[in-house]
Amino acid sequence: MSIDPLAGSASTDVFELASEHEQVVFCNDPATGLRAIVAIHSTALGPALGGTRFYPFASTAAALTDVLNLSRGMSYKAALAGLDLGGGKAVIIGDPAKDKNEALLRAYGRFVQSLGGRYYTACDVGTYSPDMDVIARECSYVTGRSASHGGAGDSSVLTAYGVFQGMRAAAEVAWGEPTLAGRTVGVAGVGKVGHHLVRLLVEDGASVVATDVSPAAIARAVAENPAHVRVVGSTEQLVGAELDVYAPCALGGALTDGVVEVLSAKIVCGAANNQLAHPGVEKMLEDRGILYAPDYCVNSGGLIQVADELEGFNFERAKQRAAGIFDTTREVFRLAAADGVAPAIAADRLAERRMRDVGRLRGVWLPDETRSR
């Protein structure tokens, strides 16, 4: 199902495309060149929280598709993590290296402020804690701020930690022990999250095969772990290598039919959002005997970290909560086995159950923090 809002016709209208979502806001500020989309999937559990992705999308249609998928994933991520938060996401269309500036970020902050607290923003691809500090000059609903401004700082630290905990849980199912010691892990993307994950894996005794489109990211990963990281030139080479675990840590859609067909890994567990290229890939993984740790289950550490800011940030408290991803992933695998379904389906069921059971008591989150009945 595709749509190009800039074209004269579309195969699907916006309401059908966003039929699961409460609200989609298109933000346009010609003075700064800002073009952004904020998608609020659900506020049944509380105000929506999710990062702002600054990326040179090929079209408005591509940006809209991405923000709708990502915001839906945030609802499930928050629910499975046990947070009283809903799911939202935002995208700014443009090249952050060329287009990002104070005026544009402040204009974006004013749009987020206009939502009155139904959506809290944070860092994502192309945005960082200093950007959140700029946005916060116009907006009260910002998390992921720098430590000097009382924020949690870079949420990639606990994102990686949570993925590592999920990987330990998967290793326990696959090999009987919750450790990656002696295993070979392929990490696709060693940037914001991936390089922290590499460090944790090496500390646990794993060997890492890495790839990234950024030479600088690869150079940093090797420099930090010179004896334990081997580099390959492409994701295609990585997925074709002899691996015990494959960790997609770049953009979504990494698990295609072709990738699943050639994977030698027994576990897939990574930080990327929306890893399954299409419905049915989870069944292909299961048929090949590959244990898939659902992405929004294991990569929720960053959300847990920035959500902690809403209480007054404490890193050790947030890390302790992120450590619970080990038990949550275990429960997903237990339910999958008990129900005879793929882990991705089991995770959806757990998240949907909480949104249904708790959400029915709360309704839609309104700007004045009242709830409809």
How would the blueprint of this fold be written?
Layout: H1 14-17, E1 23-29, E2 34-42, E3 48-49, E4 52-55, H2 60-80, E5 86-93, H3 96-99, H4 102-114, E6 119-120, H5 129-135, H6 156-175, E7 184-188, H7 194-203, E8 207-211, H8 215-224, E9 229-231, H9 235-239, E10 245-248, H10 257-262, E11 267-268, H11 281-287, E12 291-292, H12 295-298, H13 301-308, H14 315-323, H15 325-339, H16 343-359
Parallel strand pairs: 3-5, 3-6, 4-5, 7-8, 7-10, 8-9, 10-11, 11-12
Antiparallel strand pairs: 1-2, 2-5
Commentary on this structure:
- With 373 residues, the protein is of the alpha/beta class.
- The protein has two domains: 14-149, Rossmann fold, CATH 3.40.50; 156-311 and 318-341, 3-Layer(aba) Sandwich (Rossmann fold).
- 43% of the residues lie in helices and 14% in strands.
- It is built from 16 helices and twelve strands.
- It has helices at 14-17, 60-80, 96-99, 102-114, 129-135, 156-175, 194-203, 215-224, 235-239, 257-262, 281-287, 295-298, 301-308, 315-323, 325-339, 343-359; strands spanning 23-29, 34-42, 48-49, 52-55, 86-93, 119-120, 184-188, 207-211, 229-231, 245-248, 267-268, 291-292.
- The strands form two sheets. Strands 1, 2, 3, 4, 5 and 6 form a six-stranded mixed beta sheet that branches.
- β8, α8 and β9 (229-231) form a beta-alpha-beta unit.
- The radius of gyration is 20 Å and the shape is globular.
- The two termini are 34 Å apart.
